[in-house]
What we know:
The protein is 30% helix and 28% strand. It is of the alpha+beta class.
Amino acid sequence: MIVRFPGGKRVVAEHEGRTIETDQSRAAGGEGSAPTPFDLFLASLATCTGYYVLAFCQKREIPTDEITLSLDVTRNEEARRLDRIDIRVHLPSGFPEKYVDACINAASQCAVKKHLADPPDVVVSAGR
């Protein structure tokens, strides 16, 4: 992954032929033209969880067109970090009751969530 700075407060990552753009909000001096890096972090967790729900349902041929997920955060403003992230899987009334707990269990297997539970060391260095 290569990260570049195309101007303003924008930061762009290039990875495997794809471009991931970020920007800061207008309040933070950006143009608001793309999600912030932190928004992408939260979206990564939510979409990873969603993938596990999708895979679970596809394996059982359960329709997913009415399933949604929502993510809510509890912030600790003093510490400037999150205290809690709640992801809710919204299942339609016709979802098979016998699969509700198993679906939530599948969602909990998200790889991003597992990395948050046991985080890797992150090492930052500089080179020329």
